[in-house]
Amino acid sequence: MGKSLFWKGIFYGAIAGGALTMLDKSTRESTAAFCKKTASSTAYYVKNPNETFNNVKEFSARVKIAAQQVSEDVAFIAETVEELREAAPQVTTLVENTKSAFKGEKGLHIENEVNEWDKLTEV
Fold this sequence. Notes:
Layout: H1 2-21, H2 25-47, H3 49-121
Protein name: YtxH domain-containing protein
């Protein structure tokens, strides 16, 4: 019993709220313009069902193409992620080897520069 009263209260409250908003002149005018526009557009599509069908068909084709493109993009990204996941250990090893090689060369390079400087500054 209380449940049916609740929904009735919601319904009557919505009607009362809508009626109160119609006291404002600009709200009445914009609502009337919207209703006229909707009515004329509905009448047009009722009189031209082929155009309505073609518009729906075209829209569904665009949605289908977009969904295929998204699916292809997701597959490409998943493939790229898998390739990166497989290559990660090799890249890590390569970076570590490169890092250690540069550290070794850098140390030798600095020692050589110090020795060259010592030779030049000896008088």
